[in-house]
Amino acid sequence: MNFVRKPLILKLVVVLSLFPGRAGLAQSAQPVHAQHAMVASVHELASQAGVEIMQQGGNAVDAAVATGFALAVVHPQAGNLGGGGFMLFREAQGKAYFLDFREQAPAAASRNMYLDQQGNIIPNASMVGYKAAGVPGSVAGLALAQKKWGKLPLKRVMAPAIRLAKKGFPLNYADVDDLKDPKLAQFPESYRIFQRDGRLYQQNEILRQPELAKTLERIAKDPQDFYRGKIAQALAADMQKNGGLITEKDLAQYQVKEREPLKGSYRGYEIISAPPPSSGGVVLLEVLNMLEGYDLPKLGNRSADSIHLTVEAFRRAFMDRAELLGDPDFSRIPVAQLIDKKYAAAWRESINPAHASVSTALQRPAGTFNQLDRVARVAAPHESDNTTHYSVVDAQGNAVAVTTTLNGTLGSGVTAQGLGFLLNNEMDDFSAKPGAPNSDELVQGEVNAIAPGKRPLSSMTPTIATKDGKLFLVAGSRGSGRIISSVTNILLGVIDYGLNIQEAVNAPRFHHQWMPDALRLEDVGFSPDTIAILESRGHKIETSPAWSDSECVAVDLKTGDRMGASDPRFPGRAVGY
Ligand code: DON
């Protein structure tokens, strides 16, 4: 993981109230306020692109599409044309919609494609190179959202991205550091564009992307070009030449799926989030349902008691994630049962407030999924590097939460020849080896095995919360499995601990994902006393540098002010007007 701190000088320009944060990081305790509209994203230029479009009369969806395409230019680590994602849109009048533009496995993909003759996983096969890529969905997803709900022509909405690709933009420290990635050097087109054939970019140098500009112009004219036109032909030809699986037919058959957003509640707030093939909404709602039974506000923010209970809820919901979730178009996913408050209450019975459970010994409540529906255990999802989330609220109160990814930072490392964009390595989100015994000598489940046309299980958690029908919060994060715990931590921060949205985003994060059986803490922000209490309760503590990048917008329920909170762990920015 690369963790890059916000440059202090830049931060000083926009934020008046500062206090010294961790590792030289300047943290504001106050969100950016604006009266009308707000975009929060990992890059200031991408946030500005969204605001520019709203000032031209666009709505939150127009802005989200503008920001999404701009991120494909200014944040090649995760912003993308060659990846996929999810969009959650809530109209000001209250109806919510969800677009799934997750990648699909190509038709030639097969369940054992990343295994050698002996049945062992081939290192990196699902992570680097042409074969690691699923059929990209981002272009179709953004274009469909714009067509269904946007107000402005696509060309206009994409203008900022095209301008940024043509004219270039100054690379920040985080970009320069990420672009050193050795995997880029394995692929001549990536090496040429992102590493200038070995003359690596320095901070503040301008990155111009003429091929990407041309691709964006073609998409602006006709997004179908990506799936059935010249872009599709060029992409498929490059794949064929280099041993990739994606064909013109795969691209032509790619489908965005409109799905029902998941809905639940937490202490009087309505929580709307991502359904499968994301695990995000299910795990988030399961955790919140379990925690509703405890007086967390009384136990206190980041107290050992509140961390313990939250972690025990994570442990249980992540076990369900590992065993029961996958692409709903391929398996029956028991979503309704999992997010039922009665199921959470039954799970809660097994939580010992004084002692940590042992993940390997954890049993679901009697009569639930232990019998017929039981899927054998799989290893916990691993942490990979990059994804990006952005949140938008417009002047009318429409709200959009988008999380999008190439999976690893800079995806598979492959830039499509002549097209200027990186391809994902989302195939790694499937279980590469279903049926293999894990360390408990249990076999992995089938539910997330590779199959042609299938979508890999995700953790992306674009989420919207409302109170009495009024928009309250738009949230989401990067960070693989940690996405879900970060979003949960932020919701608990504002709802239970009385933090403002910026404080909730800044607050030190903790995470547990069932397997490995470790309570992970960010290495700054937890007191030794708290850690000692948690250890005495049986938690195996691991600390690591700051993680996730959460880009959120809250609405002041009294004044209607938009409050943007960009994560100080990365050089993002909330921009409003
Ligand atoms: O869809 C997923 O859950 C993963 N591909 C996301 C990867 C990720 O968040 C890495 N970020 N740090």
Helix content: 25-40%
Q: Alpha-carbon distance between the termini?
A: 33 Å
Could you say which small molecules are bound to this protein? Answer: 6-diazenyl-5-OXO-L-norleucine
**Mean pLDDT reading:** 91
The class by helix and strand makeup works out as alpha+beta
Question: Which strand order spans the largest sheet, edge to edge or round the barrel?
Answer: 3-20-19-15-14-11-10
Q: What is the strand content?
A: 15-25%
Low-confidence spans: pLDDT under 50, at least 5 residues? 1-26, 378-384, 435-444
Radius of gyration: 22 Å
Number of distinct helices: 19
Explained architecture:
This protein is of the alpha+beta class and 577 residues long. 33% of the residues lie in helices and 15% in strands. Strands 3-20-19-15-14-11-10 form a 7-stranded antiparallel sheet. A hairpin with a 5-residue loop joins strand 1 and strand 2. The structure holds 6-diazenyl-5-OXO-L-norleucine. The site of 6-diazenyl-5-OXO-L-norleucine (DON) has 15 residues, from loops.
